[in-house]
From TrEMBL:
Keywords: RNA-binding. Pfam families: RRM_1 (PF00076). Residues 22-99 form the RRM domain. Transmembrane segments: none annotated. The lineage of its organism: Eukaryota, Fungi, Fungi incertae sedis, Microsporidia, Enterocytozoonidae. SMART domains: RRM (SM00360), RRM_1 (SM00361). This is Ring zinc finger transcriptional negative regulator. It comes from Enterospora canceri. One of its GO terms (biological process) is protein ubiquitination. The keyword Amino-acid biosynthesis does not apply.
């Protein structure tokens, strides 16, 4: 259960939003960017081990996604590399996602959000927090309107990062399509006569004009 001394005194923890350091929120994706594509190693899978992906379509013909990584440093690496990069012809934005404290955690009782057949709680599957976070991760009302919840700079602004490897191999695939199925018969015999390089070079030198001997 949360102690007032450990976080912001007087706060209503049932309604606060908390930065989740292993959760990445992506904005500006195309509608075709599904979970299978985003999980690929040349997409978001290149930054670490992905636990979960949720893709939500938006009204403006774009989609947003929530990607949960195993470790905080993997999510940070993803944000640094992908934020303000170009994907599908448009600039996408990345920052930390937010979550809430689990109501069962706040009440100091076993979590009931996900139970297995024996009634045992599976905390790993609960989407909400089951640990106390520092006050710096708790967002105020005015901070909820921020488009970025991180302070580090984007490393690949206006550059293509996601799916680049696939594009390189796609060119090779197109070249292979142009390959004909025509086969050429192998010759019955191959005539090969080795030559003495030193002898041949000597003949060429002696045949040049102005040849002189000492």
């Amino acid at each position: 259960m949360i102690s007032q001394a450990e976080s912001c005194p007087g706060a209503d923890y049932s309604n606060v939003r908390v930065i989740k350091r292993n959760l990445v929120y992506i904005m500006g994706l195309s509608m075709s960017a599904g979970e299978t594509i985003l999980r690929k190693h040349d997409h978001f899978g290149q930054f670490g081990s992905i636990k979960k992906i949720i893709v939500n379509p938006l009204k403006n013909s774009t989609a947003c996604a929530y990607i949960t990584y195993e470790r905080d440093e993997e999510a940070e690496r993803c944000i640094r590399m992908v934020d303000e990069s170009v994907y599908g012809g448009r600039v996408i934005r990345c920052t930390y996602g937010t979550t809430k404290y689990c109501t069962f955690f706040l009440k100091n009782i076993p979590c009931q959000n996900h139970l297995n057949g024996s009634g045992r709680s599976l905390l790993a599957d609960c989407m909400y927090l089951h640990e106390v976070k520092p006050a710096t991760d708790i967002l105020k009302k005015d901070e909820l309107l921020k488009s970025k919840l991180h302070t580090f700079d984007a490393l690949n602004r206006n550059k293509e990062i996601l799916g680049v490897r696939n594009k390189r191999f796609a060119m090779l695939d197109e070249l292979f399509k142009l390959k004909t199925n025509k086969s050429f018969p192998a010759p019955k015999t191959i005539t090969f006569q080795p030559k003495d390089i030193n002898t041949e070079m000597g003949k060429q030198i002696r045949g040049q004009s102005g040849w002189r001997t000492l």
